[in-house]
Amino acid sequence: MKILITVDPEIPVPPIGYGGIERIVSSLSKKYSKYGHEVYLLANPNSTEDSVIEVFGWKGLKSRGKKNIILNAIQLYKIVKRIKPDVIHSFSRLLYLYPIFLFTKIKVVQTYQRKISVKSTNAAIRLGGGKINFTSCSKYMHKGFDSIEKWNTVYNFTDTDYFIPDNNVKKEYLMFLGRIEDIKGTKECIEVAFATNTKLIIAGNIQEGHDDYFNQYIKPHINNPLIEYVGVVNDEQKLYYLQRSKAFLFPIKWEEPFGIVMAEAMACGTPVVGFKRGSVPEVVKDRETGFVVNNINEMIKAVNQINNIDRKKVREDCIERFSLSIIANKYINLFNKYKNVI
Questions:
Q1: I need a labelling partner for 21 at 20 to 30 A (CA). Which of 40, 159, 164, 225 fits?
Q2: Model-level pTM greater than 0.90?
């Protein structure tokens, strides 16, 4: 099968730093190619993904703006006419696809990793008809859409070959990993640590505009023996801390689309305790791979019961649902299903 993957023009593949969608696209490209498919990539001009046959750089370097949209829509159409893919796996803007809908028979699978616009997807369905179908990285994201038959849930994945358990190390602390801001619940993690008398490792970045939150709610506790802030971590450090965690805390205050860090923790056999928001009830199997809770008091109780969770089963569940091979095959099955539909 010939697959063209598109990513917004701001995003180089593979990622220069940590990366989100960039890392997902790079891994999928490698896996599709390993399966014997012909893979092409249209992304930021600085992309260096070497697993694909050819990398194209967008002419319009911003996702938005009339000029950029027109440039990129025309460019995508020309590339499609030249390479004639069986399917486009789009992580980029729907507007770029309009000439494809109007002037070709190419099938499109549009993948969403963040909030979905009902207006734009409905417009694409009206124009693209049977040429477009959608995936989102959790059922929560497309909940309530009228065109539900157009939607598929394909979860994100983690590197289960890299994130592995270490059964020879002591499980010493709780862990928080993410942006340090209110909607991520860093302050709540500190409350849980104090209430359970358990050490907490805090890892993550402080984005511009969130300094006051850090200074008010996090910094005053850093000198406490129970609280340790380790800053931004790379994959090697992340693996080290997750392998030694009793539980990963995820007290989010927003509708998280997926939360790859939960899957990374589970790959290490580390149970997740998260608030019942967004994708958490889908990613975490309550009382099997962790606990899905409603508030701080329930999170405290869950931490005190964390030894009831079988860490081996946590790891097994992650491999069965969130490994790269599982997710890549789900996409390939969708491509095969749709590319032959008239």
A1: 164
A2: yes
Question: DSSP letter string over 73-85?
Answer: HHHHHHHHHHH--
Q: Which domains are present in the chain?
A: 2-157+323-339 (3.40.50.2000), 173-321 (3.40.50.2000)
Q: Who's near 178: CB < 8 A, 6+ residues apart?
A: 184, 186, 204, 261
Residue 334 token pair: 């969708």
pLDDT confidence of residue 4: 98
DSSP state letters, 253-305: SS--S--HHHHHHHHTT--EEEESSTTHHHHS-BTTTEEEESSHHHHHHHHHT
Beta bridge partners of 148: none
Structure tokens at 96: 């770029």
Separation between Cα atoms, residue 242 and residue 254, nearest integer Å: 23
Q: Which tokens is 186 given?
A: 């860093």
Q: What is the pLDDT of residue 31?
A: 98
Listed as ranges, residues in the chain with pLDDT below 70 are 17-19, 340-342
- Give the pLDDT confidence score for residue 342 in this predicted structure: 44
Q: At what angle do helices 260-267 and 311-322 cross, to 10 degrees?
A: 130
